[in-house]
Write a structure and sequence with these properties.
Chain A is of the alpha/beta class. Chain A has 3 domains: 68 residues, no CATH class; 250 residues, 3-Layer(aba) Sandwich (Aspartate Aminotransferase, domain 2); 116 residues, Aspartate Aminotransferase, domain 1. Chain A is built from 15 helices and 11 strands. By secondary structure, chain B is of the alpha/beta class. Chain B is 38% helix and 13% strand. Chain B contains 15 helices and 15 strands. A 7-stranded mixed sheet of chain B has the order 2-8-7-6-5-3-4, sandwiched between helices. In chain B, strand 9 and strand 10 form a beta hairpin. In chain B, helix 4 runs antiparallel to helix 13 and helix 7 packs across helix 8. The longest helix of chain B is centred in the last third of the chain and has 38 residues. Classes of the chains: A alpha/beta, B alpha/beta. At the A-B interface, helix 1, helix 2, helix 3, helix 4 and helix 5 of A face helix 1, helix 2, helix 3, helix 4 and helix 5 of B. Chain A: Keywords: Oxidoreductase, Pyridoxal phosphate. Chain A: One of its GO terms (molecular function) is pyridoxal phosphate binding. Chain A: It catalyses: N(6)-[(R)-lipoyl]-L-lysyl-[glycine-cleavage complex H protein] + glycine + H(+) = N(6)-[(R)-S(8)-aminomethyldihydrolipoyl]-L-lysyl-[glycine-cleavage complex H protein] + CO2. Chain A: One of its GO terms (cellular component) is glycine cleavage complex.
């Protein structure tokens, strides 16, 4: 037979397209997805039907209008929807910058699926949960070493919740010193995650945003002008979402401390820093790591997750409780309830135990040297990608020209000016090659932005595939812009008409709302 | 014979091959990886290797983790009657199959194009819960019930421009800690008394406490103590007369048999999705939902993602996307509504699968089974000398058993039950001193008749030992 030639530079991809109905359309009266467990006959004999005791005011009169669907049909439907979802397992997942989409080790996923964890109740007696408490404790120790801080809580269940927790601690700290009213401002920076500002507002703070200087660093002169006896705290990521590390960070924290503020560190962008530099030396009082980013827990379509929150000894009494401690010489782990200074709780029970176990397992599979390798290769991969992307017509990376750490926020400004093709068009076109691509949070400070973070998980060939897709799209933009503007053509769906999404008369957030708002005239129906 | 040294090559890090690294460094135009870190000042650099335990191979890791977890004794090994916010329920295998799919488990924040399936599955979840609560809008889920309540209260405060909230006194005190932290400093709260004989909210106390600065009245049905609140409409009416929003928390698994709060005056409904297909996972299965009517004033106050359905340029094709995105902090930073970010989306998808499997009749039958089994347990326990079923109201899934007359503390009883291999319920004596030495017990469809009888017999033995002492 003849040799099969495979010369195309970009992947000849097509996303699964099942044209699946909405689940209510699978309804067939009488079908069953699963049998509901029944009470034993002796129980029925003893208590009767169980429901006639419900007062009439509280009896459900009509069963919920859920669909009736056989089990295989339900399974098939959701398996098809899963195939129409681009999980990070399936692609060179470097396009969701700031999210650290790294390889999710299968062994960790396997190990959390044990009844020893899945069927554990959070209020069980301490003696029955020694295994998971030890995992919490050991992860705390590892996190202390990685950050240089003194105590961790794994209760916050995302970066956003960790930020809210830190803003709460800032407030409780100043209140404990009688300065709660006076210190009512939190300073953040423009290239930090929007949740930094948003959660501080929830805790009653006024926000001061420090803008980038000409090189992309947060402007230290602005910070000097911003601090005062009203400063409660300063929150920042470093590197910020530009991938630019602020080398003067210690000066920043000194300035804030001199004004009496607390410095807290968003370590969402920590992947290039493991074993290289830490929160402690940079002068931070608190930090958090996303275990679902840097520490290889999966993102689960957007949670559940963990924002591992570390503090200095001085702030430990303010942590939400309980925290896990080890008692005496014997190997016994305890849930330690916090004292009066604690902010209380931020999430039910003990956070997301599965993610805590995954992160612990990941650290154990790498060790200190492995974590350093992670950081170094993440930075190597990023700079290789950066170097290659700057050669693509129409692409640039604003601010300093030197190397970046683990990610870069790029710009298609020139390409948009030259061709009219926008970064949103590129987002849709990248689907046609089986790849994710993300622009930026709003507002777009970098014009026509895109943010890429290659992590340590991808090989040079993987990176080349991603680069090649961008090269191809740039070429298309300059030669046949309609191809990019009309994308996707090889994904599950085509361009969505989103004009209803901001119109209260037309938006449909549930199937029942859709049926009401799009009712057909009687004759057609 | 000495083994040759194996190359340092970690399976998770492909670009550790020295020649590949060299090639990449040449492309970049630097000598070494260290050069890429030149921007970090020396004084910030870690001088020594971190002090962490040595790396384990996959096989060693499995052995290590197995050994650690073997020290856990789960509710499959110890019969447990704990609920109190995290409940044991039957989980259909299809729920696990779907939420373990690697497409869903490893997806994150993709666009509606590459992640069409994720958007559709979450839209369907919203739509299925909407039927359960009989409301037209449901959010992409938040962290847990406590967060859902906290956000509902803040939504009510923004809508009314008021700053006080009234909460039913039966509320779980741990949940209250979360709410108190989240609504402070903008809002203040006050607890409304409940009747300690029935668990019902005291409408007179509510009337006394409600003012023209009350943004919301919040109660749960069933309450944290398991009781069914019969006067929901009356409470909602009192709230509405004062211009406040009525927020009701609900255990969604009760809604096959209990009336959805939207039918007795609730404006915002919230609750926890964990009963709908999530393993307890030591508390890692919690997920909060919020539901409202489809009115702009409500929709625009959600901080959460809300996924909507829309046409595409191709006739007959469904598309999905974000509704009113500009209200979120993703779009508007500190001017957005509270904050949004990673929450518990996969549990939302799983809850959708669960509801699709159970269907209308399954939810009804399951609710009935839970009521029968928990009533049976209460009946057996109520027959034990010295034990009384404290709140004389119909209950769902959980009930309060009072041991005061035995002269034993709940702590002591729990200890003696443990000696018999049973994990009793949640000790209420410190959070609800007005209920004496009481325990909150949870009985669901997972408890077999013999589990319930085992508990009753064990408690009978524990109590009779002391009651004999009391009576002699």
């Amino acid at each position: 037979m003849k040799r099969i030639i495979r010369e195309q530079k970009v992947r000849n991809f097509h996303q699964a397209k099942w044209d699946e109905p909405v689940i209510f359309e699978l309804h067939k009266p009488g079908e069953r997805g699963v049998e509901a467990p029944q009470a034993e006959s002796a129980i029925v004999a003893a208590v009767g039907d169980g429901v006639s005791v419900i007062p009439d005011s509280m009896k459900r009169t009509e069963p919920p209008a859920l669909p009736e669907i056989g089990q295989a049909k339900v399974l098939r439907h959701y398996l098809r929807l899963s195939q129409e979802t681009m999980g990070s397992d399936f692609n060179v997942e470097i396009g969701q910058g700031t999210c650290t989409m790294k390889y999710i080790p299968r062994v960790n996923e396997m190990m959390i699926r044990t009844t020893k964890l899945m069927e554990l109740h959070p209020l069980q007696h301490e003696d029955d949960v020694q295994g998971i408490l030890e995992v919490y404790y050991r992860l705390d120790l590892a996190m202390r070493e990685i950050s240089g801080l003194d105590r961790f809580s794994f209760q916050p269940s995302s970066g956003t919740q960790a930020l809210l927790t830190m803003a709460s601690i800032v407030r409780a700290y100043h209140e404990s010193r009688g300065e709660g009213e006076q210190r009512n401002e939190i300073i953040t920076t423009m290239f930090s995650h929007p949740s930094q500002a948003a959660t501080a507002v929830v805790k009653g703070y006024k926000i001061i945003t420090v803008m980038p200087d000409a090189d992309g660093f947060p402007d230290i002169e602005q910070l000097k002008r911003a601090v005062s006896d009203r400063t409660a705290g300063f929150v920042v990521a470093n590197p910020e979402d530009t991938g630019i590390f602020n080398p003067r960070i210690r000066e920043f924290t000194d300035i804030v401390h001199a004004a009496g503020g607390i410095c807290y560190y968003d370590q969402a962008n920590a992947n290039g820093l493991l074993g290289i530099t830490r929160a402690k030396e940079a002068g931070f009082d608190m930090c958090f790591f996303n275990l679902h980013k840097t520490f290889a827990a999966p993102h689960m379509c957007g949670g559940p997750a963990t924002g591992a929150l570390g503090v200095t000894e001085a702030l430990a009494p303010f942590l939400p409780g309980p925290v896990v401690s080890r008692s005496g010489e014997r190997e016994h782990y305890e849930l330690q309830e916090p004292g009066d200074l604690s902010i209380g709780k931020v999430r039910s029970f003990h956070g997301v135990a599965q993610t805590v176990l995954r992160a612990y397992a990941w650290i154990r599979s790498l060790g200190a040297e492995g974590l350093l390798n992670v950081a170094q290769v993440a930075v190597l991969n990023n700079n290789y990608l950066y170097h290659k992307i700057l050669q693509i017509p129409g692409a640039s990376a604003p601010y300093i020209k030197g190397n970046r750490l683990e990610q870069v926020r790029y710009s298609w400004q020139k390409m948009t000016e030259d061709t009219g093709v926008t970064t949103e068009d590129v987002t849709r076109r990248m689907c046609d090659f089986g790849l994710h691509y993300w622009t930026s949070h709003h507002p777009y400070v970098v014009p026509q932005p895109f943010t890429l973070e290659p992590t340590e998980s991808y090989s040079k060939e993987d990176l080349d595939e991603y680069i090649q897709a961008l090269v191809q799209i740039s070429k298309e933009a300059y030669n046949e812009p309609e191809t990019v503007k009309n994308a996707p053509t090889r994904s599950t769906v085509h361009r969505i008409n989103d004009s209803s999404f901001d119109d209260p008369a037309k938006w449909c957030i549930t199937w029942r709302a859709y049926l009401k708002k799009t009712a057909l005239p009687q004759a057609e129906a | 014979m000495a083994q040759p040294k194996r190359a340092a090559m970690h399976p998770y890090i492909p670009n550790m091959i020295p020649e590949v690294q060299r090639q990449m460094l040449n492309e970049i135009g630097v000598e070494s990886i260290e050069d890429l870190y030149r921007i970090i000042p020396d004084e910030l650099k870690l001088k020594e290797q971190m002090d962490l335990p040595p790396a384990l191979s996959e096989l060693e890791l499995r052995r290590h983790v197995d050994r650690l977890l073997s020290r856990n004794h789960s509710t499959q090994e110890v019969v447990s009657f704990l609920g109190a916010g995290c409940w044991p329920h039957f989980i259909p295998a299809v729920c696990d199959e779907i939420n373990q799919r690697s497409e869903f488990a490893t997806a994150y924040a993709g666009e509606p194009y590459e992640d069409h399936g994720r958007f559709q599955a979450l839209f369907e979840y919203q739509s299925l819960v909407a039927e359960l609560v009989d409301m037209d809008v449901v959010n992409v889920p938040t962290f847990d019930w406590a967060q859902a309540t906290s956000t509902s209260l803040r939504m009510a405060a923004r809508m009314t421009g008021r700053s006080k909230v009234l909460l039913a006194g039966t509320i779980d005190k741990d949940k209250l800690k979360i709410i108190a932290n989240y609504i402070t400093p903008d809002l203040t709260f006050e607890l409304v008394d409940f009747h300690t004989e029935t668990g019902e909210l005291d409408p007179q106390d509510l009337r006394n406490k409600i003012t023209d600065d009350t943004a919301a009245v919040y109660f749960e049905n069933p309450s944290f103590l398991g009781t069914i609140e019969p006067c929901g409409q009356q409470i909602a009416d009192i709230a509405h007369e004062a211009g406040a929003v009525c927020v009701v928390g609900v255990d969604p698994i009760s809604l096959g048999v209990l009336k959805p709060p939207s039918q007795y005056g609730a404006d915002i409904i919230c609750g926890d999705l964990q009963p709908l297909g999530m393993h307890m996972n030591y508390g890692g299965g919690q997920a909060g939902f919020i539901a409202t009517r489809d009115e702009e004033k409500y929709v625009m106050e959600y901080p959460s993602r809300l996924f909507g359905i829309a046409p595409t340029i191709v006739e007959g094709e469904y598309g999905f996307g974000d509704v009113a995105y500009e209200r979120t902090s993703f779009h508007d930073r500190e001017k957005g509504k509270e904050s949004v970010g990673t929450q518990t989306a996969l549990w939302g998808i799983t809850a959708g699968v669960y509801l699709a499997l159970l269907g209308p009749h399954g939810m009804q039958e399951l609710g009935q089974t839970i009521m029968q089994k928990s009533q049976y347990a209460a009946k057996l326990l109520g027959q034990i000398e010295g034990v009384s079923i404290r709140l004389q109201s119909p209950f769902f899934k959980e009930f309060v058993a009072d041991f005061t007359e035995t002269g034993l503390t709940v702590e002591e009883i729990l200890k003696q039950l443990r000696a018999e291999g049973i994990q009793g319920g949640r000790d209420l004596s410190s959070d609800f001193p007005e209920l004496g030495q009481s325990m909150l017990l949870c009985v669901t469809e997972v408890h077999a008749q013999e589990d319930i009888e085992l508990l009753a017999e064990a408690l009978g033995r524990v109590c009779s030992r002391v009651m004999k002492g009391v009576n002699s």
